[in-house]
Amino acid sequence: MNEIPAYTASHPRWYRPRVSTYWWLWQWAYLKFILRELSSVCVAYFVVLILLHLRALSHGPETYAAFQAWLKTPHVIALNGVSLLFVLFHTITWFNLAPRAMAVRLRGKRVPDLLIAGSNYFAWLVVSVAVAWLILRG
Amino acid sequence: MAEMITLEVMRYRPEQETEPTFQRYEVPFHEDWVVLDALNYIKDRLDGSLSYRWSCRMGVCGSCGMMVNGEPQLTCATFLSHYLPGPIRVEPLRYFPIMRDLVIDMTDFMAKLQSVKPWIIPSQEKPLSQGEYLQTPEELDVYKQFSMCINCMLCYAACPVYGLDPQFIGPAAIALAQRYNLDSRDQGTSQRLDMLSQHEGIWGCTFVGECSKVCPKEVDPAGAIQQYKLTATKEWFKAFLMPWSAK
Predict the structure, then answer these.
(1) pTM for this entry
(2) Mean predicted confidence (pLDDT) in A81-105
(3) CATH number for the domain running over A40-136
């Protein structure tokens, strides 16, 4: 749109309410949305943590042992715990929203929402089991 | 004496005041009364100066959308009994300029609707002698949900993106564009892409999802926008990886 709709020169007396900076605090749905958006920071944090893991690994056993000791400190455990909750929140809310974005049609009929969300959860489970198997088998 | 319920109605009289105020009205409570019935009672019996829009009284015209206790609602489909014991706060639709009392200015919305070319654009007009443009029930089913919009603007009042950036084309207009994009008789998708693929189009949407929750016709504009994002991304990758296939 080229014109700025907030200003209508011929009607200067129309009242234009301002949106508060804290609009997201008013309703749980909006607060949930903001928390979902913020949870991306925790996803990024875990990615950085994995990179730090690899970096410590490449620097030899001593550095890796020191890194693991750092991971066992209470404040890092607390941070990782909170981050995990946010990442789970992020994953579950996005998987639940997936059917809205994916309008898959099979034989002329739309695939039910439950099946779309369910296949996402199933893929999550398969990947998690595969990762757990890789880590725990030794 | 009949049971009464209180309505706190936002008033804005531009010739008298610079900011809206709330006025309390006591109206009789009836189990089968909706908020619009209460407003009509106020207009007929208590205060004829109250201004608001309404028409069909049956959830079809989309005129009587207002904020009821902070939620965008069609007042003809919102029962007083849902808000017992009251009071019920009635305000004009959020994020729109207020002209008077509960009446908002919808010029911006109308311009946005028009900007997405919401009509069938065939690649080639058929001569009349060739008859109708036929469509199978399956082809109708693809876009039918998005064609149920009654332009009530509740989705705009639920969308914080529109509130923060009035340039955003908004849920109903994008859903309507998608309704025509998905129509088998339409070949105007590329003409709508310019408007929809800009930042104020689909990419402005952060998927809050409230537009779909408040929609009285279950149009799911949030779904329409996300589906269009997926289509636009696929098209972009196709054009990037296979530039020779671009039409």
Answers:
(1) 0.88
(2) 89
(3) 1.20.1300.10
